Structure formats: structure tokens, C-alpha cells
Amino acid sequence: MRFFRLLPLALAPLALAAPEPRPNPVAAPAPATTGLLEELPDILSGVQGLLTADNLKKLDTILDGAAKLLASDNINVLQDILTNAHSLLTKSFVDNTTTLIGDATPLVEDVSKLLGGVLGSL
Question: Where does the UniProt annotation place the signal sequence (predicted)?
């Protein structure tokens, strides 16, 4: 039983004497193209044209609006709106609405002509 207690002590010098792995002296091959670094000047010149004062002001307005819209007190309201829209906008409803609008368009044009004629005669 003493043997098993002393075994780790006997093996310790072997573990300490194990040579460290040597790094591979050959470097990995370079990629064929530098990719993004090669395209960086074109990307930066494209971005520079977008970063005008007017565009930054518009972006700031958009981000302000998005922050207000996505505020924690609006999340439940937005979830309710999306749930209602999902249940309302079925394929059948959309198809029927599209047909209704298509059928009503000529009527609106006729009424517009009729009103134009009536108003023109006054």
C-alpha cells in the first residue's frame, strides 16, 4: 500500500524531465490575397461620402426614434401590435382586401370624374 502512495513521487521527476514541445519553425503560408485589408481604401472612401453632416443628423434622428420606440415600456405594446397583425393579416384577408381594392378602383375613378364634372359646371 505504501507503494501506491510513493508512486506519484517516483514519477514526478519523469514528468518534470519531459521536454517541452518545440514550436514549428516553419510559419504558416500567407493567404493568397489580403482580402479586407486590400479593399479597405475603397471601403473608407465610400464611407467618407456617406458621413456628411446632413447624413449624420438624419442617422441621429433615426437612432433617437428607434431608441424611443424600443424603450422597455413600449416592448409589450409592440408585442401586442405584432400579435394582432399576425392574426389579422392572414393570406385570405390579404387576398380579399386586394380584390376589394381592385374592384373599387374603377368606381373611385368614375366618382372622381362625376364630381369633377359637377364642380366644373358650378
Answer: 1-17
